[in-house]
Amino acid sequence: MKKALSLLLLLSLPAFAQPANLQADLDAIVAAERAFAKLSVEKGFKESFLAFIAEDGVMFRPMPIQAKTSLKERPEPQIDLIWGPSHAEISRSGDMGWTMGPSEIRPKGSDQVIHGHFVTVWKKQPDGNWRWAIDTGIGHDKPASTASELPKTGPVGKVPEAGKSPVSKVDTAAETQALLALDRDFGQATAKGTSAAYLARVSDDARLMRGGAFPYIGKDAVRAGLEKAPAAMTSTPDGGGVSAAGDLGYTYGTAEWKDAGAKVGYLRIWEKQGGSWKVAVDWVDDPPAPPAKP
Fold first, then answer.
1. What does CATH list as the number for 22-149?
2. Tens of pLDDT, residues 132-149
């Protein structure tokens, strides 16, 4: 009886696991991003993207699509794509992370260089390898330092501050559905005023990514960036995921500016802070220009 009671109590407690070696996992994500970029230079866009894609990987064309089939069917783009991570983060469970950094697109046979920034969501696979779940980016003016000048080695990013304590595992399916519901509500709140809705939900060091501009980093910069976009937007999620620790997640889907009659894809990376989900990265594919002021 005592043994049965002990087992019942054990089963009623949340599942805990010893923390992963987060620094090693974070370094592995950065190494995967750099290997991904290196293969693109050596073997081309198509081969590199297929080599590092997760089975359920998503890209935007401009709406979200299952990327693997699309990549296999499309011809090799006649470009050289160069990029490198300047920032990386990882979940406490060591199974999900994201990277961000500058990029260059160089059309073959041309001196043109299209500068930009990328963002990639990474998931650790059952075999221990890291594969990208979502990859996208923006274009903008030439930065002070180019992607080709980025260091090819060395640490990028930092592990969570609570990374040395035991990790409580969550029901990822239920947490994903809850995050999708939150994202859906958030996407309707923006219809009443994009700036107010965002500023109530973004983290202090949030990154806002909009085509034609450098990433806006931090609440004040995000506020300034939002003022340059149309005032009202709605969005509806198509999918997403949450880490085993329930502290990092992502959502993606379709955003719409009804006044402009434009629909585009979006990606949001969420981090749980103080028990509440906050937007860490918000990417929307090339929003329309705001209407001219009278």
1. 3.10.450.50
2. 999 999 999 998 765 555
